[in-house]
Amino acid sequence: MPRNRKKRISRHLKMSLPPREAAPGEGPGPEINLIHFTELSFTEKRLSSLEDLPEFFEEGGTAWIDITGLNDNALLMDTAERFGIHPLVLEDICNTGQRAKSEDYGNYQYTVLKMVTWDEESMQVEVEQVSMVLFPKVLITFQERPGDLFEPVRQRLRKGKGRLRKEGADYLAYSLLDAIVDGYFLLLEKIGDQVEVLEGELLSAPETGTSARLHELRREMIFLRKAAWPLREAVASLGRSGPLSGGTTAVYMRDLYDHVIQVIDGIETIRDILSGMLDIYLSTVSNRMNEIMKVLTVIATIFIPLTFIAGVYGMNFALMPELRWKWGYPAVLAVMAGTALWMLAFFRRKGWL
User: Which domain holds residue 332?
Assistant: First the structure.
């Protein structure tokens, strides 16, 4: 690509990014990992630049270029120049707030989606945008940071088991997509465990922290729903047209679409469960408050006649015969005690206690 075209790409990236979005140049340093394989050979290497790529492409086979870190403008533009990636695609790769989608650009297929994992320390959902550019013999993936769900795919390539090394870049792209969708299943299992713990707390002794955690899980499920529904559209689009829609890969893409539907069903189920748990929590808190108010009401009701009796004999009238009785004070106490016991028995008979 001519030098002036590279400048136009850089200018287009800076001018097209929406406000408050992070431009390229932020985040961890880039890493370039190359896996080149045929049915009988396998090479895995970390590259310092893309200058070493031609020697691998001359050998034929399939290449997987995994670029981790989006902070190097020169590397990203060099990648776009070498492979003829459109500036709009490069902008979408750098802008990590993209909605999952798949677009056919003729000689390559561009797909972007969200990869989700569960952080055991923070007990929260971690989200990362993954972009894939699929050529007939090359697959380029762009990730925000190190660490992904693709290690099982790498292990299968290293061991040469299964059909992965016998197929091309399209089946490799399907395998990565399948690993990402499997990550949604693993995440739903983790969230399901949290839901069970919260359900036990709700049925035993709900606290203020229970409500906060319940609302946090609901927010995470809303976010997952926003990520999963576009993923459904992207996988459906890949199954209808493009390199993944033909040959033997088409069958696997239909199976992947079914998995995405299952993920969405699981998300909706957990959302319904959380909504029901919120209703249970509010009902439990309301019942506890009613029990407290009932006890306080009973106590106040019992003391009403006692206060009346004490008020009557607390008046300073001279002609009150009971004030001069020898047993007046014990008699008044006995009347108060009898009144309280009678009211307790009456409340219990009515089922109010």
Answer: 291-350
Q: Tell the residue number behind the tokens 């699929």, with chain if given.
A: 134
253 and 307 in a single domain? The answer is no
Quick check: 303 pLDDT over 50?
Answer: yes
Helices (H), ranges, 69-165: 73-83, 87-94, 151-159
Alpha helices in the chain, H assignment, sequence order: 3-16, 53-57, 73-83, 87-94, 151-159, 169-204, 208-240, 249-312, 328-350
Q: Is residue 233 part of a domain?
A: yes
Give the C-alpha separation, 74 to 351, whole Å.
Answer: 79
- Report if residue 15 sits inside a domain: no
Q: What are phi and psi of 133, to 5 degrees?
A: -120, 110
Across the chain, mean pLDDT equals 82
Residues 274, 295 within the same domain: no
Tokens 């009211």 — which residue? 343
Model pLDDT for residues 153-170, shown as the tens digit of each residue: 999 999 887 788 888 899
Same-domain status, 124 and 250:
yes
Question: Could you report the per-residue pLDDT of 40-93, keeping only the tens digit for each?
Answer: 888 888 888 888 776 666 667 889 999 998 888 888 998 999 899 999 999 999
CATH number of the domain bearing residue 330: 1.20.58
What distance in Å separates the CA atoms of residue 64 and residue 350, rounded to the nearest whole number? 78
Under DSSP, the state recorded for 97 is: T
| 47 and 159 co-located in one domain | yes
Tell whether pTM > 0.70. Answer: yes
Q: Looking at residue 246, what is its pLDDT?
A: 72
Residue with tokens 């009347």: 335
Q: Per the domain annotation, does 217 fall within a domain?
A: yes
Tell me if 10 is assigned to some domain: no
Q: Are residues 173 and 269 in the same domain?
A: yes
Residue 229 vs residues 100, 215, 240, 261, 307: alpha-carbon distances, Å: 9, 21, 17, 9, 66
List the Cα angle 311/315/320 in 5-degree steps.
115
